[in-house]
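can u pls check wat happens w/ alpha-D-galactopyranose
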Amino acid sequence: MSQKFHIVSPGRVNLLGEHVDKNDGKVLPAAIDRSIKLSAETRDDSLIKIKALDLAESVEIDLTKLDGKLDSAGSPLPSWAKYPAGVAWSLQTGGFATKGAEVEFTSNIPMGAGLSSSAAVEVAFAVLWQAMSGWSMDRLTLSQYCQKAEVEYAGVNCGLMDQFACANGVEGHAVLLDTRSLDFKSVPLPKNTSIVIADSTVRRSLQTSAYNDRVIDCQAAVAVAQKRNANVRSLRDVSVDELEDMKSKLSDGVYRHARHVVGEIERVEQAIHCLEIGDSNTFGKIMFDTHASLRDLYEVSCPELDALVEIASGFSGCIGARLTGAGFGGCTVNLVEQSKAEEFVQYLSEGYLRKTNLNAAVFVTHASRGAYVV
Ligand code: GLA
């Protein structure tokens, strides 16, 4: 007898700690109330048939033949299907059963917008296979299997933040993850504030290669730092002053990219302190500083994201604003006084249209729980 399953898996927004999860830094994301909704009916064989309803596409994959990244008829998998296939492959490397099923899913997470639509798909399928097959696994480990799928199967050399946030979100909270120790805890959001997301609607096609290039630059800076101090394992072990001392040994690009990372790792520490003492204003100021650093040093912003942040900064109830996620287009995250959130949505949409002739999708979001079986 076949069994039916329904899974909800959210996207995420990152409040602070951008581009530090490949460098052992701390990150502060929250799962959001935009999600993947997936329905599945088990099969008795090893085939998984997946319908991506929003794309009007479907794929059939033999779960015993994942290595070639081909569908069951031998054609290359479409890029979206590499996420579920990669998760099955990754789980199998750990000896976890992945059963066949008929699956369909739909999503209201904008794609390629820095809100982790792909991690949400990965986590949705991991939770599905867990529910169908009955093995147990904690959510941190589950997110690590999903990250492995993205790095080793889909080819994006990402950190753990996105999969972690989609799997471990907590209603009304951000989740602070130390990507070195893997300690994590939920932290309340700044009091009386709303999180507003603004999708610039701009997407950059070189996102993946530029992302991977920045990671390589950070590794180059680490290699130089290790010549001075053999105990350095990542940029987490390098202070801003130490990086300044090494500057002449680094190419300009490597220096600036690493400078963002070491500065951002320090900013997150300050921001955690702000949350502890309830200082939302300084937290917001740090968000603006992070944006400037991502724009000028890490070089992952674009004119449209800069325009959104600049317009937001002119609104008196906007406490902080910055690009969120990998960058190169996508979204900004804005921390706004709760009572002014709706007014802000209108202000930002109108200002952006005037300045760029583009219609941003601006919406208030609520921090949500991680993926679950309905
Ligand atoms: C992408 C990656 C994450 C993280 C962010 C930038 O979302 O998947 O691991 O590196 O970019 O902070």
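Residues 302 and 328 are 6 Å apart (CA to CA).
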